[in-house]
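New to this. Please check this fold:
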Amino acid sequence: MMGYGVLGFAFGLLLVSFDYDWYLAPIMSLFIYAGALQFVAINFFNAKAGFVDIAIASYFVNIRQSFYGLSLLKRFKKTGKLKPYLIFGLTDETYALLTTIKDDEQLKKRWYYFFLTAFNQSYWFIGSTLGAIVGSGIKFDTAGLEFSLTALFVVLCIEQYKSLQNSIPFIIGLIASLFSLVFIPSDKMLIASIIIALVLMFSFRKKIEND
């Protein structure tokens, strides 16, 4: 709640700072619900990007989440009618919680997954709406607010490390990211780093599992 509320608030402030109506924040948070993409979307609007350009960029920004889905196929198998929403609401933060917190066997898992996802979206929705409303009435310099998303990812990474106590996946991620940053064009960096990281993860799978 603290992470999503603050981050959503920052998104709402940033959106209205570019003279967009406040109600766009809750609409985007309800129907798009993709933190990183919503921040990027503000730049799309300002650049007056075309539909095709936005669609392609959105695909590459969010393609990492397809790998999240693959790793949760077994967990979501028996979620029934809740599955479409669980797929829609699978964000970086929700995935981090699902893979870090151990399931309570006393709970009905499909409802546990549903409420975890729904509460996360509600925190983002409320935070972004409040940020947009406050930003509409108070004008101030929003430079640097977009870094709040990066800061949240850093915190999630630290929590994952504390849970796994295994440095190899993080070293692989660092190597893949640095290689892509130096040798791959910026518009293809994300997908390239994901593919390189996956290849290295499979290559060192036995060592990772044994550590």
